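PROTEIN–LIGAND DATA SHEET

This sheet pairs a single protein chain with one bound small molecule, adenosine-5'-triphosphate, given as SMILES. Inputs appear in the order they were entered. The predicted three-dimensional arrangement of chain and ligand is reported afterwards as a C-alpha coordinate string under its own label.
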Amino acid sequence: MEDVVSEVIKKALGESKIFKNREALACDYIPNRLPHREEYIRKTAELLSPVLRGEKPSNIFLYGLTGTGKTAVVKYVIKRFTEHAEKAGIDFFKFSYVNCRNEDTNYRVLFKVGSDIGAKIPFTGLSVAELHNRLREYVESKRMIVTIVLDEVDFLVKKVGDDLLYRLTRINDELYRSKVSIIGITNDVKFVETLDPRVKSSLGEVEVVFPPYDALQLADILRERAVLAFRENVLDSGVIEYCASVAAREHGDARRALDLLRFAGEIAERESALKVTIEHAKKAREELEVNAATEVVRTLPYHSKLILLSLATRGGFAESTGSLYLAYRKICDILGLEPLAQRRVSELISELDMLGILTSKVISRGRYGKTKEIALGIDSTVILKVLSSDTRIGEYVKLLKNDRNR
Ligand SMILES: Nc1ncnc2c1ncn2[C@@H]1O[C@H](COP(=O)(O)OP(=O)(O)OP(=O)(O)O)[C@@H](O)[C@H]1O
Ligand SMILES: [Mg+2]
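PREDICTION REPORTED AS:
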Protein backbone atom coordinates (compact mmCIF):
# COMPACT_ATOMS: atom_id res chain seq x y z
CA MET A 1 0.00 0.00 0.00
CA GLU A 2 2.68 2.41 1.05
CA ASP A 3 4.58 1.80 -2.15
CA VAL A 4 1.57 2.77 -4.22
CA VAL A 5 1.24 6.02 -2.30
CA SER A 6 4.89 6.87 -2.57
CA GLU A 7 4.71 6.15 -6.27
CA VAL A 8 1.86 8.63 -6.60
CA ILE A 9 3.78 11.19 -4.59
CA LYS A 10 6.87 10.67 -6.67
CA LYS A 11 4.93 11.09 -9.86
CA ALA A 12 3.08 14.14 -8.57
CA LEU A 13 6.35 15.79 -7.65
CA GLY A 14 7.60 15.03 -11.11
CA GLU A 15 10.47 12.96 -9.86
CA SER A 16 12.30 11.56 -12.81
CA LYS A 17 13.35 7.98 -13.37
CA ILE A 18 16.11 9.22 -15.62
CA PHE A 19 17.48 12.39 -14.05
CA LYS A 20 18.85 12.85 -10.58
CA ASN A 21 19.69 16.50 -11.18
CA ARG A 22 18.82 17.82 -14.62
CA GLU A 23 20.36 21.19 -13.77
CA ALA A 24 23.84 19.67 -13.95
CA LEU A 25 23.46 19.56 -17.73
CA ALA A 26 22.14 23.12 -18.06
CA CYS A 27 24.39 25.45 -19.99
CA ASP A 28 24.88 27.96 -17.15
CA TYR A 29 25.83 25.33 -14.60
CA ILE A 30 29.40 25.77 -13.39
CA PRO A 31 30.80 22.39 -12.38
CA ASN A 32 33.44 22.10 -9.67
CA ARG A 33 35.83 20.50 -12.08
CA LEU A 34 36.55 21.38 -15.68
CA PRO A 35 38.40 18.44 -17.21
CA HIS A 36 40.97 19.33 -19.88
CA ARG A 37 40.99 22.98 -18.92
CA GLU A 38 43.34 22.75 -15.94
CA GLU A 39 46.06 24.52 -17.89
CA TYR A 40 43.73 27.39 -18.83
CA ILE A 41 42.39 27.68 -15.31
CA ARG A 42 45.94 27.94 -14.03
CA LYS A 43 46.88 30.48 -16.67
CA THR A 44 43.83 32.64 -16.02
CA ALA A 45 44.32 32.44 -12.26
CA GLU A 46 47.99 33.37 -12.62
CA LEU A 47 47.17 36.30 -14.87
CA LEU A 48 44.62 37.55 -12.34
CA SER A 49 46.74 36.83 -9.28
CA PRO A 50 48.10 40.42 -8.92
CA VAL A 51 44.66 41.41 -7.55
CA LEU A 52 45.39 39.27 -4.48
CA ARG A 53 48.19 41.70 -3.64
CA GLY A 54 46.16 44.75 -4.57
CA GLU A 55 47.88 45.23 -7.92
CA LYS A 56 46.41 45.61 -11.36
CA PRO A 57 46.50 42.56 -13.63
CA SER A 58 47.08 42.97 -17.37
CA ASN A 59 44.08 43.29 -19.61
CA ILE A 60 43.31 39.91 -21.11
CA PHE A 61 41.62 38.90 -24.33
CA LEU A 62 40.28 35.37 -24.49
CA TYR A 63 39.14 33.81 -27.70
CA GLY A 64 38.17 30.47 -29.07
CA LEU A 65 35.25 28.85 -30.83
CA THR A 66 31.89 28.52 -29.17
CA GLY A 67 31.65 25.94 -26.39
CA THR A 68 35.38 25.72 -25.68
CA GLY A 69 35.00 26.60 -22.00
CA LYS A 70 35.93 30.32 -21.99
CA THR A 71 33.01 31.46 -19.87
CA ALA A 72 33.20 28.41 -17.63
CA VAL A 73 36.92 28.90 -16.94
CA VAL A 74 36.65 32.61 -16.19
CA LYS A 75 33.59 32.21 -13.98
CA TYR A 76 35.27 29.38 -12.15
CA VAL A 77 38.40 31.40 -11.39
CA ILE A 78 36.37 34.42 -10.30
CA LYS A 79 34.31 32.24 -8.02
CA ARG A 80 37.41 30.82 -6.38
CA PHE A 81 39.05 34.24 -5.95
CA THR A 82 35.85 35.67 -4.49
CA GLU A 83 35.57 32.78 -2.05
CA HIS A 84 39.16 33.41 -1.02
CA ALA A 85 38.45 37.10 -0.44
CA GLU A 86 35.42 36.32 1.67
CA LYS A 87 37.32 33.83 3.77
CA ALA A 88 40.29 36.13 4.24
CA GLY A 89 38.09 39.16 4.87
CA ILE A 90 39.65 41.09 1.97
CA ASP A 91 37.66 43.65 0.02
CA PHE A 92 40.26 45.47 -2.05
CA PHE A 93 39.50 43.59 -5.24
CA LYS A 94 36.20 43.20 -6.99
CA PHE A 95 34.99 41.42 -10.11
CA SER A 96 32.17 42.37 -12.39
CA TYR A 97 30.91 39.85 -14.91
CA VAL A 98 28.95 41.35 -17.79
CA ASN A 99 27.43 39.30 -20.58
CA CYS A 100 27.28 41.78 -23.45
CA ARG A 101 24.69 39.73 -25.27
CA ASN A 102 22.26 40.64 -22.49
CA GLU A 103 23.70 44.02 -21.51
CA ASP A 104 23.98 45.40 -25.02
CA THR A 105 24.11 49.15 -24.51
CA ASN A 106 26.89 51.22 -22.96
CA TYR A 107 24.51 52.33 -20.22
CA ARG A 108 23.50 48.80 -19.30
CA VAL A 109 27.10 47.61 -19.19
CA LEU A 110 28.15 50.43 -16.86
CA PHE A 111 25.04 49.94 -14.78
CA LYS A 112 25.85 46.25 -14.34
CA VAL A 113 29.44 47.06 -13.39
CA GLY A 114 28.19 49.63 -10.89
CA SER A 115 25.82 47.23 -9.22
CA ASP A 116 28.42 44.44 -9.11
CA ILE A 117 30.95 46.61 -7.31
CA GLY A 118 28.48 48.28 -4.98
CA ALA A 119 28.17 51.75 -6.54
CA LYS A 120 24.71 53.26 -6.28
CA ILE A 121 23.61 54.25 -9.75
CA PRO A 122 20.14 55.15 -11.02
CA PHE A 123 18.69 52.71 -13.54
CA THR A 124 18.09 55.50 -16.05
CA GLY A 125 18.43 59.24 -16.30
CA LEU A 126 22.17 59.82 -16.57
CA SER A 127 24.19 60.26 -19.71
CA VAL A 128 26.74 57.54 -20.39
CA ALA A 129 29.54 60.07 -19.80
CA GLU A 130 28.06 61.00 -16.44
CA LEU A 131 27.64 57.37 -15.48
CA HIS A 132 31.24 56.72 -16.44
CA ASN A 133 32.40 59.61 -14.25
CA ARG A 134 30.39 58.46 -11.27
CA LEU A 135 31.77 54.96 -11.56
CA ARG A 136 35.30 56.30 -11.81
CA GLU A 137 34.80 58.48 -8.73
CA TYR A 138 33.34 55.57 -6.81
CA VAL A 139 36.21 53.26 -7.72
CA GLU A 140 38.77 55.91 -6.84
CA SER A 141 37.12 56.59 -3.48
CA LYS A 142 37.29 52.94 -2.50
CA ARG A 143 40.93 52.21 -3.28
CA MET A 144 40.35 48.96 -5.11
CA ILE A 145 41.28 46.81 -8.06
CA VAL A 146 38.28 46.19 -10.29
CA THR A 147 38.33 43.50 -12.96
CA ILE A 148 35.55 43.78 -15.50
CA VAL A 149 34.76 40.72 -17.59
CA LEU A 150 33.07 41.63 -20.85
CA ASP A 151 31.86 38.29 -22.12
CA GLU A 152 30.65 38.02 -25.75
CA VAL A 153 32.00 41.54 -26.14
CA ASP A 154 31.55 41.39 -29.93
CA PHE A 155 27.77 41.77 -29.39
CA LEU A 156 28.26 45.13 -27.70
CA VAL A 157 30.76 46.43 -30.23
CA LYS A 158 28.71 45.33 -33.22
CA LYS A 159 25.71 47.08 -31.76
CA VAL A 160 27.09 50.33 -30.40
CA GLY A 161 30.74 50.51 -31.46
CA ASP A 162 33.92 50.36 -29.40
CA ASP A 163 33.60 53.71 -27.67
CA LEU A 164 33.01 52.21 -24.24
CA LEU A 165 35.86 49.75 -24.62
CA TYR A 166 38.13 52.63 -25.45
CA ARG A 167 37.01 54.62 -22.43
CA LEU A 168 37.38 51.67 -20.10
CA THR A 169 40.86 50.85 -21.27
CA ARG A 170 41.78 54.52 -20.64
CA ILE A 171 40.09 54.88 -17.28
CA ASN A 172 43.32 54.16 -15.40
CA ASP A 173 44.83 57.41 -16.70
CA GLU A 174 42.50 59.19 -14.31
CA LEU A 175 42.74 56.82 -11.38
CA TYR A 176 45.44 57.19 -8.76
CA ARG A 177 44.58 54.99 -5.83
CA SER A 178 42.54 52.39 -7.72
CA LYS A 179 42.87 50.46 -10.95
CA VAL A 180 40.57 48.80 -13.46
CA SER A 181 41.44 45.90 -15.72
CA ILE A 182 39.42 44.27 -18.44
CA ILE A 183 38.93 40.71 -19.58
CA GLY A 184 37.37 40.60 -23.04
CA ILE A 185 35.93 37.32 -24.29
CA THR A 186 34.71 36.50 -27.77
CA ASN A 187 34.21 33.56 -30.10
CA ASP A 188 34.40 35.77 -33.15
CA VAL A 189 38.01 35.93 -34.26
CA LYS A 190 37.20 38.20 -37.19
CA PHE A 191 35.74 40.71 -34.77
CA VAL A 192 39.14 41.23 -33.18
CA GLU A 193 40.49 42.44 -36.50
CA THR A 194 37.75 45.06 -36.81
CA LEU A 195 38.64 46.74 -33.52
CA ASP A 196 40.31 50.11 -33.43
CA PRO A 197 44.05 49.34 -33.20
CA ARG A 198 44.37 51.35 -29.98
CA VAL A 199 41.59 49.39 -28.34
CA LYS A 200 42.95 46.16 -29.70
CA SER A 201 46.43 46.67 -28.35
CA SER A 202 45.34 47.79 -24.90
CA LEU A 203 42.68 45.14 -24.54
CA GLY A 204 44.89 42.38 -25.82
CA GLU A 205 47.88 42.98 -23.52
CA VAL A 206 47.71 39.25 -23.04
CA GLU A 207 45.86 36.95 -25.43
CA VAL A 208 44.74 33.45 -24.62
CA VAL A 209 43.28 31.16 -27.27
CA PHE A 210 41.03 28.26 -26.24
CA PRO A 211 41.32 25.27 -28.59
CA PRO A 212 38.32 23.07 -29.44
CA TYR A 213 37.89 19.80 -27.56
CA ASP A 214 38.39 16.47 -29.30
CA ALA A 215 35.98 13.54 -28.98
CA LEU A 216 37.87 11.90 -26.11
CA GLN A 217 37.98 15.13 -24.12
CA LEU A 218 34.28 15.75 -24.71
CA ALA A 219 33.52 12.23 -23.52
CA ASP A 220 35.43 12.93 -20.28
CA ILE A 221 33.49 16.16 -19.79
CA LEU A 222 30.17 14.42 -20.40
CA ARG A 223 31.05 11.54 -18.11
CA GLU A 224 31.66 13.88 -15.18
CA ARG A 225 28.44 15.75 -15.75
CA ALA A 226 26.48 12.57 -16.33
CA VAL A 227 27.37 11.28 -12.87
CA LEU A 228 25.80 14.42 -11.39
CA ALA A 229 22.82 14.53 -13.72
CA PHE A 230 21.60 10.97 -14.27
CA ARG A 231 20.42 8.25 -11.95
CA GLU A 232 22.69 5.30 -11.63
CA ASN A 233 22.83 2.90 -14.57
CA VAL A 234 20.30 4.67 -16.77
CA LEU A 235 22.83 5.62 -19.43
CA ASP A 236 23.32 2.83 -21.94
CA SER A 237 26.89 2.20 -22.97
CA GLY A 238 27.99 4.19 -25.97
CA VAL A 239 25.59 7.10 -25.46
CA ILE A 240 28.28 9.41 -24.10
CA GLU A 241 30.71 8.43 -26.83
CA TYR A 242 28.04 9.02 -29.47
CA CYS A 243 27.22 12.53 -28.20
CA ALA A 244 30.92 13.35 -27.87
CA SER A 245 31.75 12.20 -31.38
CA VAL A 246 28.86 14.14 -32.95
CA ALA A 247 29.94 17.34 -31.21
CA ALA A 248 33.61 16.75 -32.01
CA ARG A 249 32.86 16.26 -35.69
CA GLU A 250 31.29 19.69 -35.83
CA HIS A 251 33.83 21.76 -33.96
CA GLY A 252 34.52 20.43 -30.50
CA ASP A 253 31.73 22.35 -28.80
CA ALA A 254 31.07 21.18 -25.22
CA ARG A 255 27.75 23.00 -25.08
CA ARG A 256 26.51 21.06 -28.07
CA ALA A 257 27.65 17.78 -26.53
CA LEU A 258 25.88 18.58 -23.25
CA ASP A 259 22.71 19.66 -25.05
CA LEU A 260 22.64 16.40 -26.95
CA LEU A 261 23.05 14.34 -23.81
CA ARG A 262 20.42 16.28 -21.90
CA PHE A 263 17.97 16.11 -24.77
CA ALA A 264 18.56 12.38 -25.22
CA GLY A 265 17.63 11.98 -21.54
CA GLU A 266 14.51 14.07 -22.00
CA ILE A 267 13.39 12.02 -24.98
CA ALA A 268 13.92 8.81 -22.99
CA GLU A 269 11.86 10.32 -20.19
CA ARG A 270 9.10 11.37 -22.57
CA GLU A 271 8.92 7.80 -23.83
CA SER A 272 8.89 6.48 -20.25
CA ALA A 273 11.97 4.43 -21.08
CA LEU A 274 14.11 3.11 -18.27
CA LYS A 275 17.36 3.70 -20.06
CA VAL A 276 18.81 6.35 -22.32
CA THR A 277 19.96 4.57 -25.48
CA ILE A 278 21.90 5.52 -28.57
CA GLU A 279 18.58 5.59 -30.40
CA HIS A 280 17.43 8.37 -28.07
CA ALA A 281 20.67 10.23 -28.70
CA LYS A 282 20.17 9.91 -32.46
CA LYS A 283 16.64 11.26 -32.17
CA ALA A 284 17.97 14.11 -30.03
CA ARG A 285 20.47 14.96 -32.71
CA GLU A 286 17.81 15.03 -35.42
CA GLU A 287 15.43 17.16 -33.39
CA LEU A 288 18.14 19.61 -32.39
CA GLU A 289 19.19 19.98 -36.00
CA VAL A 290 15.63 20.71 -37.09
CA ASN A 291 15.27 23.23 -34.26
CA ALA A 292 18.47 24.99 -35.21
CA ALA A 293 17.48 25.14 -38.87
CA THR A 294 14.04 26.39 -37.91
CA GLU A 295 15.55 29.23 -35.96
CA VAL A 296 17.75 30.28 -38.89
CA VAL A 297 14.87 30.18 -41.37
CA ARG A 298 12.58 32.10 -39.06
CA THR A 299 14.97 35.04 -38.88
CA LEU A 300 15.82 35.29 -42.59
CA PRO A 301 15.07 38.41 -44.64
CA TYR A 302 11.71 38.48 -46.41
CA HIS A 303 12.90 37.71 -49.95
CA SER A 304 15.17 34.91 -48.79
CA LYS A 305 12.07 33.33 -47.28
CA LEU A 306 10.28 33.73 -50.60
CA ILE A 307 13.15 32.01 -52.40
CA LEU A 308 12.97 29.12 -49.94
CA LEU A 309 9.23 28.99 -50.39
CA SER A 310 9.65 28.78 -54.17
CA LEU A 311 12.11 25.97 -53.73
CA ALA A 312 10.00 24.12 -51.17
CA THR A 313 6.91 24.22 -53.36
CA ARG A 314 8.93 22.57 -56.13
CA GLY A 315 9.82 19.63 -53.91
CA GLY A 316 13.04 21.23 -52.68
CA PHE A 317 14.87 21.14 -56.01
CA ALA A 318 15.52 23.48 -58.93
CA GLU A 319 17.50 22.49 -62.01
CA SER A 320 18.84 26.01 -62.50
CA THR A 321 18.94 29.46 -60.92
CA GLY A 322 16.80 30.66 -63.82
CA SER A 323 13.97 28.25 -63.15
CA LEU A 324 14.03 29.02 -59.45
CA TYR A 325 13.92 32.71 -60.30
CA LEU A 326 10.82 32.18 -62.43
CA ALA A 327 9.10 30.34 -59.59
CA TYR A 328 10.08 33.13 -57.21
CA ARG A 329 8.65 35.77 -59.57
CA LYS A 330 5.43 33.88 -59.79
CA ILE A 331 5.07 33.89 -56.03
CA CYS A 332 5.87 37.61 -55.89
CA ASP A 333 3.17 38.09 -58.52
CA ILE A 334 0.59 36.23 -56.49
CA LEU A 335 1.51 38.16 -53.35
CA GLY A 336 1.51 41.47 -55.24
CA LEU A 337 5.18 42.15 -54.51
CA GLU A 338 7.90 43.76 -56.55
CA PRO A 339 10.43 40.95 -57.27
CA LEU A 340 14.16 41.52 -56.81
CA ALA A 341 16.43 41.40 -59.84
CA GLN A 342 17.83 38.00 -60.78
CA ARG A 343 21.33 39.03 -59.78
CA ARG A 344 20.21 39.91 -56.28
CA VAL A 345 18.31 36.65 -56.02
CA SER A 346 21.51 34.80 -57.01
CA GLU A 347 23.32 36.57 -54.18
CA LEU A 348 20.64 35.58 -51.71
CA ILE A 349 20.90 31.99 -52.93
CA SER A 350 24.64 32.06 -52.22
CA GLU A 351 23.96 33.39 -48.72
CA LEU A 352 21.47 30.61 -48.08
CA ASP A 353 24.07 28.17 -49.32
CA MET A 354 26.59 29.54 -46.83
CA LEU A 355 24.07 29.17 -44.02
CA GLY A 356 23.70 25.51 -45.00
CA ILE A 357 19.99 25.84 -45.76
CA LEU A 358 20.46 24.88 -49.37
CA THR A 359 23.24 23.62 -51.57
CA SER A 360 23.98 24.85 -55.06
CA LYS A 361 26.16 22.93 -57.42
CA VAL A 362 27.51 24.06 -60.78
CA ILE A 363 26.77 21.46 -63.46
CA SER A 364 28.39 21.53 -66.85
CA ARG A 365 25.98 20.81 -69.68
CA GLY A 366 28.58 20.51 -72.35
CA ARG A 367 27.88 22.87 -75.23
CA TYR A 368 24.84 24.26 -73.44
CA GLY A 369 27.15 25.86 -70.91
CA LYS A 370 26.86 25.67 -67.17
CA THR A 371 23.89 25.77 -64.85
CA LYS A 372 23.51 25.73 -61.14
CA GLU A 373 21.43 23.02 -59.53
CA ILE A 374 19.88 24.03 -56.26
CA ALA A 375 18.61 21.70 -53.56
CA LEU A 376 17.16 22.35 -50.13
CA GLY A 377 19.34 21.12 -47.29
CA ILE A 378 16.34 20.89 -44.97
CA ASP A 379 13.18 18.92 -45.55
CA SER A 380 10.56 20.89 -47.55
CA THR A 381 7.91 20.13 -44.95
CA VAL A 382 10.07 21.68 -42.23
CA ILE A 383 10.52 24.81 -44.33
CA LEU A 384 6.81 25.07 -45.08
CA LYS A 385 5.99 24.57 -41.42
CA VAL A 386 8.30 27.38 -40.33
CA LEU A 387 7.10 29.71 -43.07
CA SER A 388 3.46 29.07 -42.26
CA SER A 389 3.96 30.87 -38.97
CA ASP A 390 5.42 33.94 -40.70
CA THR A 391 3.25 37.01 -40.22
CA ARG A 392 3.39 38.14 -43.86
CA ILE A 393 3.34 34.96 -45.90
CA GLY A 394 1.94 32.52 -43.34
CA GLU A 395 -1.62 32.59 -44.67
CA TYR A 396 -0.48 32.03 -48.22
CA VAL A 397 1.77 29.12 -47.20
CA LYS A 398 -1.13 27.53 -45.34
CA LEU A 399 -3.28 27.78 -48.47
CA LEU A 400 -0.53 26.14 -50.50
CA LYS A 401 -0.21 23.35 -47.99
CA ASN A 402 -3.95 22.72 -48.06
CA ASP A 403 -3.86 22.60 -51.85
CA ARG A 404 -1.11 20.02 -51.74
CA ASN A 405 -2.97 17.90 -49.24
CA ARG A 406 -6.12 17.89 -51.26
N1 LIG B 1 36.21 21.47 -19.52
C1 LIG B 1 34.92 21.46 -19.23
N2 LIG B 1 34.41 20.67 -18.27
C2 LIG B 1 33.10 20.66 -17.98
N3 LIG B 1 32.20 21.43 -18.61
C3 LIG B 1 32.64 22.24 -19.58
C4 LIG B 1 34.00 22.31 -19.94
N4 LIG B 1 34.14 23.19 -20.94
C5 LIG B 1 32.91 23.66 -21.20
N5 LIG B 1 32.00 23.09 -20.38
C6 LIG B 1 30.57 23.32 -20.38
O1 LIG B 1 30.17 23.48 -21.72
C7 LIG B 1 29.26 24.56 -21.86
C8 LIG B 1 29.83 25.60 -22.78
O2 LIG B 1 31.02 26.14 -22.21
P1 LIG B 1 31.27 27.72 -22.11
O3 LIG B 1 29.97 28.40 -21.84
O4 LIG B 1 32.36 27.97 -21.16
O5 LIG B 1 31.73 27.98 -23.60
P2 LIG B 1 32.28 29.33 -24.25
O6 LIG B 1 33.67 29.05 -24.72
O7 LIG B 1 32.08 30.45 -23.31
O8 LIG B 1 31.33 29.43 -25.51
P3 LIG B 1 30.70 30.77 -26.21
O9 LIG B 1 31.80 31.35 -27.02
O10 LIG B 1 29.60 30.23 -27.06
O11 LIG B 1 30.22 31.67 -25.11
C9 LIG B 1 28.99 25.05 -20.45
O12 LIG B 1 27.84 24.43 -19.96
C10 LIG B 1 30.21 24.62 -19.68
O13 LIG B 1 29.89 24.40 -18.33
MG1 LIG C 1 30.74 32.02 -23.28
